[in-house]
Design goal:
278 residues, alpha/beta, 5-stranded mixed β-sheet, 16% strand, elongated
Length: 278
């Protein structure tokens, strides 16, 4: 079984030109949240740390002058997380920054080293359709004490996520079981009742699970997007794209493919998918 690791970073800011200044990872038991080991490194970003960022994590430019470059700690970091299932809150942010640093260091992306990456913020959105989904919000929801944290820090946030994760994972599993049962009980494709009261009940049953289904669909789309990546395959696969807000007639796509129609028209939309050309 792959080890489970909570991962977090702190940076000089958000957007292009900003760099990682702290990276931390904590191995933990996903059933209990028990901490097993940890990794932490402060790195010199080779630029200043804006005052606005310092207010968030408490790290100043002068604190990092004598710290190593990311490239100098990269191998130790990768060795620690190798083969792990990563749990990251708002994963696109941290993964994006880390992949940039790894690229600068002449190394491959994070995804090539680990067994998998779960965005716990996305999991929270799937489990709880309403409310806030920040790590602070999840700590409050699950009664995790945050009083010892005065500023955001990668290591302390990893430890908090490790405590939150078992409860979040349990709720996600419970939701999956409940959703499967609810869907099984809904007469999809069946007759709509001729009585107003029953028809309304049927409608409300569908609406009750709609938001969860939409969240699940988004999760699948994100997974497909990550599998597709930036690769351009020819021969075995045709690249098709569609907008999440637009219904794509897949039967028509398949017919067009079989008829030899140029499928580039579908590429005007946003999410990339591949249909096996068989």
């Amino acid at each position: 079984m792959s080890k489970v690791i909570a991962l977090d970073t702190e940076t000089t800011g958000i957007g292009n030109g900003h760099r990682v200044i702290e990276v931390a990872a904590v191995e933990f038991d996903p059933e209990t949240g028990h901490l097993i080991s940890s990794f932490q490194a402060y790195v010199n970003p080779q630029r200043d740390v804006p005052a606005e960022a310092t207010k968030v994590h408490g790290i100043k430019t002068e604190d990092l002058v004598e710290k190593p470059l990311f490239s100098e700690i990269a191998f130790e970091f990768l060795k620690y997380i190798e083969g792990a299932n990563l749990k990251i809150h708002n994963a696109p942010f941290d993964v994006g920054f880390l992949n940039f640093e790894l690229k600068v260091a002449g190394l491959g992306p994070l995804e090539s080293v680990v067994a998998g990456i779960e965005d716990t913020c996305a999991t929270s959105r799937r489990v709880f359709c309403h409310g806030r989904h920040s790590l602070d919000a999840l700590c409050a929801r699950y009664g995790v004490d945050t009083s010892a944290r005065t500023v955001h820090g990668a290591l302390v946030d990893c430890k908090l996520l490790a405590q939150v994760y078992p409860k979040l994972a349990a709720d996600a599993k419970k939701l999956q079981t409940t959703l499967s049962k609810e869907l099984a009980d809904i007469p999809l494709g069946g007759d709509v009742s001729d009585t107003l009261e029953e028809a309304v009940k049927q409608y409300l049953e569908l609406k009750r699970v709609q938001s969860t289904i939409e969240a699940e669909a988004k999760r699948y789309q994100e997974k497909i997007r990550s599998l597709v990546g930036d690769s351009e395959k020819e021969g075995d696969f045709y690249k098709i794209t569609f907008q999440s807000r637009t219904t794509t007639d897949w039967k028509m796509v398949q017919k067009d493919h079989l008829r030899g129609v140029d499928l580039s028209a579908y590429q005007t939309q946003s999410l990339a998918m591949y249909i096996k050309s068989k």
